[in-house]
Design a protein that fits this description.
Strand content: 15-25%
Number of helices: 12
Radius of gyration: 21 Å
Number of strands: 13
Distance between the termini: 60 Å
Helix content: 25-40%
Shape: globular
Structural class: alpha+beta
Low-confidence stretches: none
Bound molecules: CU2-O2 cluster
Mean pLDDT: 95
Largest sheet: 4 strands, antiparallel
Strand order of the largest sheet: 9-8-11-12
Length: 393
């Protein structure tokens, strides 16, 4: 807390304002065509790498200001009924000065907008835990890096939205998210989930430190970390500003106290993931792309005149974002939603009339968007493990 207080006073190119602007506004990444865009990489297989390096940049800046600890992670996959005290307490006692001082993790100042960050916490944050772990497990189940990266990023988006809510100067805005120190406490956990996936890949005997599905991306410099020392004074992140250099976090100089998730070790996680494959599952498959705005996508699956709520996803965006589109589907498990509506996975095969979707997309300010800005999802049937289809022996 003392280190963050100091970092906020640091007006240098590696102070709080400068680091926060690496992610969103003021935009730092020039483009030949349309002026500068926000540097953060979303919707690409480099999302995990860019944000790993970014969390490290923040951690090393705090260490420069006297911190001797790592950036803590907030494990939002477990159950909780309030935010971590680190983020919410209003003040703390500083034994060095014998003073009670303001807790710097509560909010951040946004110089370019001359305002402070706000948290418009949504009640769902405290209600969706049992689902959150399932979404994370589905990400961890993916054995191909690019499939993992899509599921992983979309799960992480929800925390931005549920903490930031409908407020512009909040975690739910790509432009201003990183001005709220909660960003780094969240992203430290996001990074830990990637580390858990990497450990699972090792356990499964699969690649954990490369991405065969996106080799070209893995050798492209990540801005603004790769820029010169005037823009990024941190020689360590500058030197490692290529995704290939970021897979090995221990090589970057840090580790995690534990890679357990929801009390499960890596072998237990693997077992849980494998047992989840023993029943047939149905997914909605979305081909997502940047909308230039943060948005909430609610979807219902309909048969004849009957529509049932199947889920929602959150997209983090902003007008200054880099254009992006995933090259593969984000899968949202709708098996339970269908069952609750009395629809068995098998019914999808025998229905005489096709199942259709009702998709409602709301920008974070509440404005309804055209539901066709993203293609209607596909229905994906995944048979139980070892079965070719539902009625196979
Ligand atoms: Cu760039 Cu969480 O992704 O912010």
């Amino acid at each position: 807390m003392n280190a963050l207080r100091q970092l906020k006073k640091d007006q240098s190119n590696d102070g709080f304002q400068a680091i926060a602007s690496f992610h969103g506004l003021p935009a730092r990444c020039p483009t030949p065509a349309e002026g500068a865009v926000a540097c953060c990489q979303h919707g690409m297989p480099t999302f995990p790498h860019w944000h790993r390096l970014y969390t490290l940049q923040f951690e090393e800046a705090l260490r420069r200001e006297g911190s001797s600890v790592a950036v803590p992670y907030w494990d939002w996959t477990g159950s909780f009924d309030k935010l971590p005290e680190l983020l919410t307490r209003s003040n703390y006692y500083d034994p060095w000065t014998d003073d009670v001082v303001e807790n710097p993790f509560q909010r951040g100042y946004i110089e370019s907008a001359d305002t402070y960050t706000v948290r418009d916490v949504q009640p769902e944050l405290f209600q969706r835990q049992e689902h959150t772990i399932e979404y994370v497990l589905l990400a961890l189940e993916q054995e191909d890096f690019c499939d993992f990266a899509v599921q992983f990023e979309v799960v992480h988006n929800a925390i931005h939205y549920l903490l930031g809510g409908h407020h512009e100067y909040s975690l739910s805005s790509l432009h201003y998210a990183a001005y709220d120190p909660a960003f780094f406490i969240h992203h430290s956990n996001v990074d830990r989930i990637w580390a858990i996936w990497q450990a699972l890949q090792d356990y499964r005997g699969l690649p954990s430190k490369t991405a065969y599905c996106a080799l070209n991306y893995m050798s492209s410099p990540m801005k603004p970390f790769s820029f010169d020392a005037d823009i990024n004074p941190n020689a360590h992140t500058r030197k490692h500003a290529v995704p290939n250099e970021v897979f090995d976090y221990e090589h970057l100089g840090y580790t995690y106290d534990t890679l357990e998730l929801d009390g499960m070790s890596i072998p237990e996680l693997s077992e849980r993931i494998e047992s989840g494959k023993n029943h047939a599952r149905v997914f909605a498959g979305f081909l997502l792309k940047g909308l230039g705005v943060s948005a909430d996508v609610h979807f219902h699956i309909c048969h004849q005149d009957n529509c049932v709520f199947a889920g929602y996803i959150f997209m983090l965006g902003g007008a200054a974002e880099m254009p992006w589109a995933y090259d593969r589907l984000y899968k949202h498990d709708i098996t339970d939603a269908l069952k609750e509506a009395g629809i068995q996975p098998e019914d999808l095969f025998s229905a005489e009339e096709p199942f259709t979707w009702k998709v409602d997309i709301f920008a974070v300010d509440g404005k309804k968007l055209d539901s066709h800005v993203i293609p209607a999802p596909t229905i994906i049937y995944q048979p139980a493990k070892g079965r070719v289809n539902f009625n196979a022996p």
